[in-house]
Design goal:
Elements: E1 6-11, H1 17-25, H2 29-32, E2 42-47, H3 48-62, E3 70-75, H4 80-84, E4 86-87, E5 90-91, E6 95-101, H5 108-119, E7 124-129, H6 145-149, H7 154-173, E8 178-180, E9 191-195, H8 204-219, E10 232-241, E11 245-254, E12 256-258, E13 262-267, E14 270-275, E15 278-282, E16 295-298, E17 300-302, E18 305-310, E19 322-325, H9 331-342, E20 350-354, H10 357-369, E21 374-379, H11 384-393, E22 402-406, H12 412-421, E23 424-428, H13 431-456, E24 461-472, E25 477-488, E26 493-495, E27 501-510, E28 513-514, E29 518-519, E30 523-528, E31 542-545, H14 549-557, H15 565-584
Parallel strand pairs: 1-3, 1-6, 6-7, 7-9, 8-9, 20-21, 20-22, 22-23
Antiparallel strand pairs: 2-3, 4-5, 10-11, 10-19, 11-18, 12-17, 13-14, 13-19, 15-16, 15-18, 24-25, 24-31, 25-29, 25-30, 26-27, 26-31, 27-28, 27-30
Helix pairs in contact: 3-8, 11-12
């Protein structure tokens, strides 16, 4: 049968995600949430008759025929529902609606949502919300944006256009071609932007039509399910409920679950099972997380659905993990594979601690995309052991000696150990902010390391004594040089082309001013303590910095990135001169 598409609603806090669904559901979920912000994950089914009622005239105008039984919306507090709405290899969501406030444009969680959508390769459309806040906007008695904008004055139309093209520009900066929905010629290449108002309802008709139409057009066989197969879904949330005990909110994306079925799921210790004691399905147009909603107790439920499951043994179920009926003879292998993939680590890398298995996978994907390895993954608060593991990592890779934590707390003893060892802990509740903070820390760490290395290491350099530029014969000898390649610094030892030491650089000057360093292409005067002009230093002679063995090892193994290809070749030349001198001795 054809199931309803699963649509995740994402966006920055206060951009109107829940209010948008409220307008469709005719409920007041947003008003019940603390501070108007979605505190829990919700799932709402919008049946076909509601879509037809809201979009009637628009459907006739577009000649659209709906074949899906409705739409299943997932309302999310930022990343959480989407990352928990997962299956091996991608996302359960068929489509996402990214809600962006037209008066504020892109904000932190907007970028976060886009990054997650890109990683999961999930198609999405943009709901440019709060058009009613545009100066001069007049509410019209319609659910259609096109009907409403046709009745607005020209100044309002111009302002709407300006706001939308500002948004088009933002998307262009991050690699997306986008356009207002009614001007798109290729839906596979251009991102749909739909102006809407959750407050007045204008634009809701187009939003539902395009969410339905694009789902039908591009998802194809993905919407076909076999209801006779064992049920398979994703755990959105786990909680304790009066009279029910531990429950899990599940998005069922394939097959059927029945009362008294045994289900399997991932736990921190492996695979857990529980017998379904109750299947609770919200009544039409109600929300899965609304405690005042009226649920129907059902004997079975088919995909795609939002369902609450009660049963003994659910206490250790991991949000974001697969839940599957044990009627499937592959459930054991599927869950084992999921756990192996989610917790797979490398020999070296950062320490990662998160709240759910969904967050773990999302962050792992993003870090891997940045070529950042992870040596340890875990769920729950950052503890002292995590800090010690990160500290131990410093011996093999100091850039991995860090703990990245998402949506969890840092234990008191972990904070103390962090202070004692100097191990950095980045703790954020916005995924992309963790990545930005880590990149900033990494750049700072590399800069400090570079400064320290440049003070302690002798770098390769080659100079040539200039003709007619001998200023002092000896004690120390002072003469002019061209820096042919690399760099020189005070205290560097110099050797000639036979590998013989000629002395140590004292000062480097240009026009009488002392310099801390001389670089390739510069002409400078230098003093050399043991050099004697005319004896071991003559015009046009070439000299090399004597790179000691410790510096050479560090330059080759740890700081090779600080050298150009030309300087690496010079280092090879210096190494060969040293070897030849040792052989002659």
């Amino acid at each position: 049968m054809i199931r309803q598409p699963i649509i995740s609603v994402m966006g920055h806090v206060d951009h109107g995600k829940t209010s948008l669904l409220d307008r469709v559901r005719s409920t007041t979920i947003a008003k019940k949430e603390a501070g108007g912000i979605t505190q829990h994950i919700g799932a709402s089914e919008v049946p076909l008759d509601v879509i037809e009622n809201v979009c009637g005239e628009l459907l006739k105008r577009f000649g659209a025929k709906i074949i899906v039984p409705g739409l299943l919306f997932i309302d999310t507090p930022g990343h959480e529902a989407f990352t928990n709405l997962r299956k091996r290899g991608g996302s359960v969501a068929d489509l996402a609606i990214l809600v962006v406030d037209v008066t504020k444009s892109f904000e932190p969680q907007t970028y976060e949502a886009i990054e997650i959508l890109k990683e999961y390769k999930t198609p999405f459309i943009v709901a440019a919300n709060k058009i009613d806040l545009i100066t001069g906007w007049t509410k019209k008695e319609t659910y259609s944006f096109l009907e409403s904008i046709a009745q607005q004055n020209q100044n309002v139309v111009n302002e709407v256009e300006a706001r939308l093209y500002q948004m088009v520009g933002k998307f262009s900066e991050i690699g997306f071609n986008s356009e207002r929905f009614d001007r798109i010629t290729d839906f596979q290449r251009e991102l749909v932007i739909l102006p809407v108002s959750a407050k007045t309802g204008e634009g809701i008709a187009e939003l539902l039509v395009y969410a339905t139409g694009l789902s039908q057009k591009f998802l194809g066989s993905r919407l076909e399910v076999d209801v006779n197969e064992p049920g398979k879904g994703s755990i959105l949330e786990k909680k304790e409920e009066r009279g029910l005990g531990t429950t899990i909110d599940v998005i069922l994306y394939n097959g059927t679950l029945n009362l008294n079925d045994t289900i399997a799921f991932a736990t921190t210790n492996g695979i857990g099972t529980a017998k379904i004691k109750a299947l609770l399905k919200p009544k039409s147009m109600q929300d899965l997380r609304d405690s005042t909603s009226k649920f129907d107790y059902v004997d079975s439920v088919a995909a795609a659905s939002g369902i609450k499951i009660a049963g003994s043994g659910l206490e250790d179920a991991l949000p974001g993990s697969l839940v599957i009926s044990t009627r499937s003879n592959t459930y054991n292998d599927e869950i084992k594979m999921e756990i192996q993939e989610a917790f797979a680590t490398a020999q070296t890398g950062v320490i990662l601690k998160v709240d759910t298995i969904g967050s773990l996978e999302a962050l792992s994907k993003l870090l891997t995309g940045m070529n950042i390895q992870i040596s340890k993954k875990g769920l729950g608060d950052v503890n002292k052991r995590d800090i010690l593991d990160a500290f131990a990592m410093k011996a093999s890779d100091q850039y991995s000696s860090i703990v990245l934590s998402f949506n969890v707390n840092v234990a008191y003893d972990a904070e103390a150990e962090s202070m004692a060892t100097g191990v950095k802990v980045i703790n954020e509740n916005v995924i992309y902010k963790i990545l930005d903070d880590y990149k900033e820390w990494l750049e700072h760490a590399k800069m400090i390391e570079k400064e320290q290395a440049e003070k302690a290491i002798t770098f390769p350099g080659m100079i040539k004594a200039l003709p007619n530029s001998f200023f002092r014969v000896s004690n120390p000898a002072v003469f002019g040089v061209d820096i042919v390649m690399g760099r020189i610094r005070p205290s560097y030892l110099l050797m000639d082309e036979t590998g013989k030491k000629i002395g140590r650089i004292g000062e480097i000057q240009h026009n009488g001013v002392n310099l801390p360093e001389g670089k390739m292409g510069e002409s400078l005067a230098i003093s050399v303590d043991d050099a004697v002009l005319g004896r071991n230093v003559k015009e046009n002679m070439k000299f090399y910095t004597l790179v000691d063995d410790q510096s050479e090892m560090l330059l080759r193994q740890k700081f090779k990135h600080l050298l150009t290809e030309q300087e690496i070749a010079l280092l090879d030349k210096i190494s060969e001169l040293k070897r030849q001198m040792i052989e002659r001795q």
